[in-house]
Amino acid sequence: MRRALIALLVLPLLAMATPAHAADEPLAGKVIVLDPGHQLGNSNPKFRKQIAQTRFNGSIVKNCNTTGTATNAGLPEATFTWKVAKRLKPLLEAQGATVLLTRTSNTRNSYGPCVWDRAGFANAHKADAMISIHADGAPASAHGFFAIAPTRIKGWTTDTYKVDRRLSKAMLTGMESAGGVPSNYIANHLQIRGDQSTINFNKVPTTIIEVGNMRNAKDAARMSSASGQQQYAQWLAAGIERFFAR
Ligand SMILES: [Zn+2]
Fold this sequence. Notes:
binds zinc ion; two-stranded antiparallel ribbon; Aminopeptidase
């Protein structure tokens, strides 16, 4: 009788003291860097010099950053990627992840950071993954998301190109399983490219996700609404979960 009573009292306490387990927080212990592409000030003439800085990225010489694209109605890619990253952050934190952003503002009074510094940020934090969020500016009939992963470049991506491709594919699978719409213009929704500084400078698993085409009416409508931005965040979260699922 007494033993039963003790069990009755103690078992609920034990349950309360047990840390949330993997099923509740599948991203516990993971450091995830979100990289909202571009910055509003990249198009500000006062930063022209800074944006024009160049570095060799393993295959070509490229600028610090670019202005990015926009919807026909004028929503800048920088603002869109910023909003999606801000919505994605709490979704990942709710699953136990530590989430860091490569930029802390979306303003015309700032530029960059340069793509090599975005990569450097993820490297410095020893991130478990870096997701670079972009949107495309393709012909109007093109729509949907795709990923970009690196070619093998000796001394640059030798150690990362395989995991980058695995991350890219996991993102595609996870995003599609969450209801995301994959691209209708990129074969297998995956580009293998050697010219992407964000990826080449990175030493941690990295992918660039072009979440949709800003010049497509349907994608642009989704990108321009709060509910649509939340959808993009949910798709990306599902992709990240897929990568870390064991
Ligand atoms: Zn972009």
